[in-house]
Design goal:
The chain is α/β, with parallel strands linked by helices and 278 residues long. 39% of the residues lie in helices and 13% in strands. The structure holds adenosine-5'-diphosphate and magnesium ion (MG). The site of adenosine-5'-diphosphate has 16 residues, from helix 1 and helix 9.
Length: 278
């Protein structure tokens, strides 16, 4: 099944230069299963990295626009979005909005992007090209992907150095992870030799449930130190914050929910080092 074959770990770290960095690190949040906390993780990790002094751009690559909504904008009222960037080559700077962090927004149009891109030469590299002009301004570019392994997600993986895979502890799907790994292998062979799984993030962890503990054990057996030490606990705070158009770090800055994403940010900043000793 290929699960035991661990992928190489990342060895690069983004610079902490406040003006942004040419060594900008691009990370996708991917899992073709919906509801595993891709969007929640993109936003809250992004805000936590910003708190630590890094420049951060979030990209909403999901036509459902949940990331866009979670910063208080209505995707139905957005005229120009990632659709125009990918399909009409509009400079990405023109659709970046600023709230807690900078966000390249999505709109319902984006649902048509896969079809529009499918007949274009270089269809898998549209996002990679779009990011060239903004990379010098950001230490971290975090991409939220839709729940599929279609052309939008492929664009994200081609543009990325690393992939963080949020996995819901309740309904662990190892088969889904094998499928994602196979897609990544294909992308490494054909489009982006450097992209690798940076970490697997257990989410919606309920410490009272044996089932949650077992799910983390299974992940560790199969992925070893690729599994982050930080486990994101299950709490209603994560659902409450987006209703207010905020991250949990903005909504409840001193709460446990915010602290968990600060812990994750620390692990991400330390790269493989922390997890080698997990
Ligand atoms: P995805 O982007 O993978 O579809 P979301 O980030 O949108 O997943 O999360 C799905 C739902 O679960 C959202 O309503 C979100 O608020 C909620 N959620 C996310 N993380 C947690 C958590 N750790 N505990 C409880 N609910 C969560
Ligand atoms: Mg989402």
């Amino acid at each position: 099944m290929g699960l035991s074959r661990l992928l190489p770990r990342p060895n690069t770290r983004a610079s902490s230069d406040k003006k942004g960095s040419p060594l900008s690190r691009v990370i996708s949040f991917a899992n073709q299963k919906g509801g595993v906390a891709k969007t929640t993780t993109t936003l809250n990790l992004g805000v936590a990295l910003k708190e630590k002094g890094h420049t951060v751009l979030l990209i909403d690559l999901d036509p459902q626009g949940n990331l866009t909504m979670s910063q208080g904008w209505n995707p139905d009222e957005i005229e120009r979005s990632m659709f125009d960037v990918l399909v009409h080559k509009l400079p990405i700077e023109e659709i970046v909005r600023v709230a807690e962090v900078d966000v390249a927004v999505s709109s319902i149009d984006l649902a048509g992007a896969e079809l529009a891109l499918s007949s274009m030469i270089g269809r898998e590299r549209a996002l990679e090209k779009a990011l060239v002009s903004v990379k010098p301004q950001y230490d971290y570019i975090l991409i939220d992907t839709p729940p599929s392994l279609g052309l939008l997600t492929i664009n994200a993986l081609v543009a990325s150095n690393g992939v963080i895979v949020p996995v819901q502890c309740e309904y662990l799907s190892l088969r889904g992870l094998v499928q994602l790994e196979n897609t990544l292998s294909m992308i490494r062979e054909n489009l982006n030799p450097d992209v690798e799984i940076q970490g697997i993030l257990p989410t919606m962890y309920d410490k009272r449930l044996l089932h949650s503990k077992e799910a983390v054990d299974i992940l560790k057996e199969n992925f070893g130190d690729l599994v982050f030490k930080t486990k994101i606990r299950k709490t209603i705070r994560y659902a409450e914050a987006p209703v207010k158009g905020q991250s949990v770090l903005g909504y409840d800055p001193s709460g446990n929910a915010a602290q968990l994403y600060r812990d994750l940010a620390k692990e991400v900043l330390n790269g493989a080092k922390t997890r080698e000793h997990a």
